Amino acid sequence: MISALRPLEWGLLSLAGLLGVLMAFILSSLGDEPQWLPAPVTRAQPSASVRAAPNVTLESLAATWQAPLFSPDRSPDSVVGKARVTGLANLTLSGIMITGNLQMAMLKQADGRPLTVRLGQTLPNGWRLEHLTPQYARFALDGRTQTLSLYAKRLPPPSTRPPITLPREPLP
Asked: Is the pTM of this model over 0.70?
């Protein structure tokens, strides 16, 4: 039967035998020792001198925030303080939290920043949170009062269109 093999079959048989020997060599763990690189040669390096940062006074840096750095039309930052606003038009009531000992209103400013105020506290614009319910918050300033209400999302009215009906088809 072996003599009846064709040359292609002999080649495939020898390839299978060669691959078997290679697999036995790999599985025998020969050649697993690490090949280390030679140790690096250390050269004497010249000692580097360490320089200290210069001492600068705060007065000499004052021009940094007062004078233009990159553009000639740059001006100093505006002073941020408590602005007195006569109304609450730039605030939206976004949430109310009422628990046993905590009552607070969550507001959203016109620029999107959040603001929280507890019952009895004063807003930066002078208005004081005077009364709080689950639906609205009442603020007072100099005898005037203003009320902010929560925006209640409402469902659309029910449809007047009749429901969809499928035609009656006999079952097969």
From this structure: no
